[in-house]
Specification:
Elements (H helix, E strand, L loop, with lengths): L1 E2 L17 E3 L2 E3 L6 E5 L6 E6 L3 H18 L4 H17 L1 H12 L3 H21 L6 E3 L7 E8 L2 E5 L7 H13 L2 E5 L6 H13 L6 E3 L6 H10 L3 E7 L2 H11 L5 E5 L4 E5 L5 H12 L10 E7 L3 H13 L2 E2 L15 H16 L3 E4 L15 E4 L6 H4 L6 E7 L2 H9 L3 E2 L1 E5 L3 H10 L4 E4 L14 E2 L2 E2 L4 H4 L4 E8 L3
Parallel strand pairs: 1-15, 8-9, 8-11, 9-10, 11-12, 13-14, 13-20, 14-18, 17-18, 20-21
Antiparallel strand pairs: 2-3, 4-5, 6-7, 7-24, 12-23, 16-17, 19-22
Helix pairs in contact: 1-7, 2-4, 2-5, 2-6, 3-4, 3-6, 4-5, 7-8, 9-10
GO molecular function, one term: succinate-semialdehyde dehydrogenase (NADP+) activity
Catalytic activity: succinate semialdehyde + NADP(+) + H2O = succinate + NADPH + 2 H(+); succinate semialdehyde + NAD(+) + H2O = succinate + NADH + 2 H(+)
Pathway: Amino-acid degradation; 4-aminobutanoate degradation
């Protein structure tokens, strides 16, 4: 395992690095002037201090968003389309600065950060086009003189609660459809990575989004109280959240006080299955793409890797060899392939999973410990062989760079193991048997399946899970419906 060096943040447009909240079209401090520090996880150096807002600021942001909705909801789809395309262009023009901000606060490599911002921008482009295609419907009436018409209308003020692991992409995936539908928004960005959100909102302001349509309430100390306000305030009509299952359950209970519309993308525990007839080299590449992207800190990454016993040794050897060639370090360095984890607690969880697996008989093929010689939160990319199906890593989402390999014998056995979890976000498998491909794809209890691929995320697909991985879908032709109400109108007397 090799370590890359450290580089510094240098922006072409320093005005994109904002440290305040954004309410009513103005950059504002917290009322009490409180701030929280944001650290670079690769160096543990302070990037800056951001306004730490509370419930009072959240209420004000919601009230302003409610007023702005009265006019924004009356704009045409074409007007919203044009503004979103301006934002898309600004995101492209400022792509390198946005990538550097993301890498500095999140730690992922600059290559991954560029990809994430392109992914985020693709949602803005997609939903710009969807803004002019919120079609209604006419339903033939069984009664003479009556016409049945169905129309779509924006739901209202939306609370958008985003995660630290994809701070740009989740803004694109949530804010773009909200704006396209004619909704206004109050965003609570993650305290670990607020700068990407603030930079994108600055670009939205430059693109011509009217004052009050987008509001941002950063917070760290008041996280629970602000989150509660964003879920229980009656002016808010819709909540979109990406994060852990326990937090999703809490937010859903709070949203239930006024029966708000919700979409939750919660935790995952993705199975990755390699059958005996798989293309092993393709399966290895797919496992790397799924498992080690963002150093394993993705909700759709492979968490349990089941490999048929007849190809197990070959797969494990090839995967370990590839992983051993990774270079970990500061994401700004062009030689770095994998960056740090987000904080110390993430390191502790990964080590706990590794230690538990080893105690139950697993062997470490690569990695298995915290990286030495680097100042940040680095853990060596790890491959574990002969993992017990009862190990913690199979039951909990690791959210780190650990590939846990488990042998299986039959299709029925591995489907049972894959589905033996309370969550169901994504699942992956590799096989060249077309019959098996259909059987397994339909049998996996997940919202999304990757068959012979480790990459599934696209702006054109309905992203979401089943069971305790949440409800609702983001992206694709279904995505804008999450931000709209369906209204039926009966026209009589004709």
């Amino acid at each position: 395992m090799t370590y890359a060096t450290v580089a510094k943040l240098q922006l072409k447009d320093a005005s994109l690095l904002k440290h305040q909240g954004f309410i009513g079209g103005q950059w504002v401090d917290a009322k009490d002037k409180a701030v929280f520090k944001v650290l670079n996880p690769a160096t543990q150096e302070e990037l800056g201090a951001v306004a730490d807002m509370g419930v009072e600021e959240a209420k004000r942001a919601i009230d302003i968003a409610g007023e702005a909705f009265k006019t924004w909801s009356k704009t045409t789809g074409r007007e919203r389309h044009d503004i979103l395309l301006k934002l898309y262009k600004l995101m492209q023009d400022n792509a390198e600065d946005l990538a550097m901000i993301l890498t500095a606060e999140n730690g992922k490599t600059i290559t991954e950060a560029r990809g994430e911002n392109a992914y985020s921008a693709s949602f803005v482009e997609w939903f710009a086009e969807e803004a002019i295609r919120t079609y209604g419907q006419t339903i033939p009436s069984a009664m003479i003189g009556l016409r049945n018409v169905v129309v779509k209308q924006p739901v209202g003020v939306c609370s958008l609660l985003t995660p630290w692991n994809f701070p740009s992409a989740m803004i694109g995936r949530k804010l773009a459809p909200a704006l396209a539908a004619g909704c206004t928004a109050v965003i609570k960005p993650p305290s670990e990575t607020p700068y990407s959100t603030l930079a994108l909102v600055e670009l939205a302001k430059r693109a011509g989004v009217p004052d009050g349509v987008i509001n941002v309430v950063p917070t760290e100390v008041h996280l629970k109280d602000v989150g509660k306000e964003l879920c229980e305030n009656k002016t808010v009509k819709k909540i979109s959240f990406t994060g852990s299952t326990p937090v999703a359950k809490l937010l859903m209970s709070q949203a239930a006080t006024s029966l708000k519309k919700v979409s939750f993308e919660a935790g995952g525990n993705a199975p990755f299955i390699v059958f005996d007839d798989a293309d092993i080299e393709a399966a290895v590449e797919g496992a790397i793409a799924s498992k080690f992207r963002a150093s394993g800190q993705t909700c759709v990454c492979a968490n349990r890797i089941y490999v048929h016993s007849s190809v197990y040794a070959d797969f494990a050897s090839r995967l370990a060899q590839k992983v051993d060639g990774f270079k970990i370090g500061n994401g700004m360095d062009k030689e770095t392939t994998h960056g740090p984890l987000i904080h110390e607690k993430a390191i502790e969880k990964v080590q706990r999973h590794v230690d538990d697996a080893v105690s139950k008989g697993a062997s470490i093929l690569v990695g298995g410990k915290r990286a030495e010689g680097l100042p940040g939160f680095f853990y060596e990319p790890t491959v574990l062989a002969d993992v017990d199906p009862r190990a913690q890593v199979t039951d909990e989402e690791t959210f780190g760079p650990v590939a846990a390999l488990i042998k299986f014998e039959t299709e029925e056995e591995v489907i049972r193991l894959a589905n033996d979890t309370d969550v169901g976000l994504a699942g992956y498998f590799f096989s060249r048997d077309v019959g098996r491909v259909w059987r397994v794809a339909e049998a996996l209890q997940v919202g999304m399946v990757g068959a012979n691929t480790g990459m599934i995320s696209q702006p054109v697909i309905p992203f979401g899970g089943v069971k305790e991985s949440g409800l609702g879908r983001e992206g694709g032709p279904h995505g804008i419906d999450e931000y709209m109400n369906t209204k039926f109108i009966a026209f009589g007397g004709l």
